[in-house]
Amino acid sequence: MLDVLIHHLRLGAAGMATAALAVGLSGAAQAQTLVTWDDYTDVGQNAVIEQLNKNFMAAHPGVTITRTARTFDDLSMTLKLTVAAGNGPQVTKVNQGAADQGAMVKQKLLIPIDDYIKQYGWDKRQSDSVLARTRWSDTGQFGEGPTYGVSGLGEMVGLYYNQKVLSDAGIAAPPASFEELVKDVDALKAKGVTPWAIGTAKGHLALHMLASIDQAHIDSSNRKALDDLIYGRGGKFNDDAQVAAATQVATWAKNGDFLDGYSGISGDDAVQLFVAGQAAFMISGTWYFGDTQTNPDIHFIPVPPPAGVTKPLSVGGIDLAWSITSNSKDKATQDLAAQYIDYMVSSEAADAWAAAGFFPSTELKDPSVVKSSLLKEGLTMWKTLGDNNALGHYPDWASPTMLKTYDDNMPHLLAGDMTPQAFADALDADYQAYLKGGK
Amino acid sequence: MSAATEQSIDSAGGTAIVAGAPARMKAQEATSILDRMGKGNVLYVLPGLLIYCLFVFFPILAAVGISLTKWDGITAPIFRGLQNYLDLFEDDRFYTALGNNAQFIIFYCVFPLIIGVILAAIISVVGQRERLVLRTVFFLPYIMPTAVLGIIFQWLYNPAFGPFNQFLKAVGLGAIALPWLGDFRFVLPAVGAVAVWYFFGFCMVVFLSGMQRIDPSLFDAARADGAKGWQTFWHVTLPQLMPEIRVVLLLTVIASIKSFDLIFTMTRGGPGNATLVPNIYMYQLGFQLNRFGYAAAVAIVGALLVFAVNFTIHQGMRRLDRSSN
């Protein structure tokens, strides 16, 4: 614990020194307040962002950051209304997708940042596929047109496995293919071991399981159809592949392969049960590294693909993006906001996040800051996905109401009172209505 | 307002008339207590009235206005007349919410009322000290915020960690240790049971106070006529408690129709809308889906429903009162 603290302090000091040097070179020093909103309400995340803000202020004498932290839900609920009223942040984190970022772009509440991307070279720090997730055209087309944000943290959904639980059940290695995964689940069940840690009372573990299975069956060379679907260019939510994925998940639920009473357990509780060794597998995202890294038997890999798919997609994306709002009215404020974002997506900031066990989207300056083996596995996977252009999508980004449609229908699919086809049809009906409604 | 309170106001008015000067008596006889407040008193009412207008009356008017528009909360609202209301009456999910709310009324009103009356009848005949203890113990749940209760019971019901299922498994009843808040068949009764637990103590205390109001000579007469315990309860106690029953019904019906916090903290309307009620639906429409116009229409219909149901209960109870007298 002490060495982590010392490391944090060292990073903080190094950050301040670097930033101060940068300011010394630029010579910019003026009294100004920068109002920022973020969703770093978690204790660990809060400590990192506070330190980063201090570093930034030290590097920009005269600049004061007025920070407001809100939970994800509160941020989503209040941001649009506040900025529309001419109040609130000048720089903020915004959830990508039609419901938040799309709606704000439509109302010109966010400012395009393409000039700053070129100026600071953010496109060299992050892949184009990642930056595309914050693009919106003038006609409301997602994934195209000007860029409205850039994120400092990455996210991936993958397969967590507990090697000790697998070994105790006679399974020497994690599954290398989807067929092996299905066999392992059956073998575990036969031995009386719960295969899957999942809870559906709160959270979206079932959605992530379903989407991960579906996207693990897509090779990155064939990703266009998925990109088109999520970016609102058209497609179907009820094609054979998606019905097959829903059938697989429903089958596991019906066979009792999930935690006992999973429908009454929240996602967070399921994670705690998984960490406690109550199940062999769990499909979820890197945001649970903080919890899962406490058990050294737990590892993280992509959901394995079926035979014939060599570069499978993994569901994922980026954390909420840093954006400049319409409250940054003059060029000087916009430039300052861009400097702030530049620091948030810098290698120094990435080191600070990684040292605290979080998952940066920008390459690290000093890879030795990563102490967690789970985070190392995640960073390796992130690099592979980047190299293969295989970072998939959250399907609920496809329409403003899609997450609600998943939430409404998923319990029925898992309870067996809705067929996989009917489930996929319900998703598709939502999507087609969105396309038809002119977005 | 109960009949008892109405009587006391009338009685107070009567006393004032007798004490006043004879010349003023005639004029005062023709006026109500509100008329006698005088224009000078308006000044004292004004601050409260302004706060009421600012935070209650104008928001209600605004909600009515918003319900006639299509509004995402950011852009200018687009007027669409009564279309939101027409859409609402064709919205299956709204009917699901109404159906669930109707079932919740049983848990918010009927069960607490029955349990409250029975417990009040039992407690009213025990000793003074026992009565105090029992009354306090049964009333305790009512002093807790329902949002806190929701969070506590969500943990109690948890299939993995919760004590309910741990207990069932420990006594060999593991087969019925269900995921209560995740099971379509049991989630509504499971949430409703918490509402019963919350309200029955309140009902009981109201009925106990009502029982103290009943003229003891009625019980003496019943006893002299040879009435047994339950006969006395059925023919004397229960009819005399009608004013209290009316108050309890009005308050619990209002609570059930405006229910939100308990359900939100326990299930958020799930699983699969199995506990969706109009207020949760309104929240989802407004704050998750940015359909503020449609959400306002749900709110207005919900408010009208509260008025309609309460008016019906009020009228029904009044008729029942008259026929029993």
Account of the 3D structure:
- The complex is a heterodimer of chains A (439) and B (325).
- Chain A has helices at residues 2-26, 43-59, 72-84, 98-106, 114-120, 122-125, 128-131, 163-168, 178-190, 205-216, 224-230, 240-254, 267-275, 289-292, 331-344, 347-355, 373-388, 402-415, 420-436, and strands at residues 32-38, 63-69, 91-94, 110-111, 135-136, 142-147, 154-162, 281-285, 298-301, 316-318, 321-325.
- Chain A is of the alpha+beta class and 439 residues long.
- Chain A folds into 2 domains: 2-150 and 320-360, Periplasmic binding protein-like II (D-Maltodextrin-Binding Protein, domain 2); 156-316 and 396-436, D-Maltodextrin-Binding Protein, domain 2 (3-Layer(aba) Sandwich), CATH 3.40.190.10.
- A 5-stranded mixed beta sheet of chain A has the order 2-1-3-11-4, sandwiched between helices. In chain A, strands 7, 8, 9 and 10 form a 4-stranded antiparallel beta sheet that branches. Chain A has a two-stranded antiparallel ribbon with strand order 5-6.
- The longest helix of chain A has 25 residues, at 2-26.
- Chain A is globular, with a radius of gyration of 22 Å.
- The N and C termini of chain A lie far apart (50 Å).
- Chain B is an all-alpha fold.
- Helix content of chain B is 72%, strand content 1%.
- Chain B has 15 helices and 2 strands.
- Chain B has helices spanning 3-19, 22-29, 42-66, 83-88, 92-123, 128-139, 146-157, 163-170, 187-213, 216-224, 229-240, 242-257, 261-266, 278-288, 292-324; strands spanning 69-70, 78-79.
- In chain B, strands 1-2 form a two-stranded antiparallel sheet.
- In chain B, β1 (69-70) and β2 form a beta hairpin.
- Residues 1-23 of chain B have low confidence and may be disordered.
- Classes of the chains: A alpha+beta (439), B mainly alpha (325).
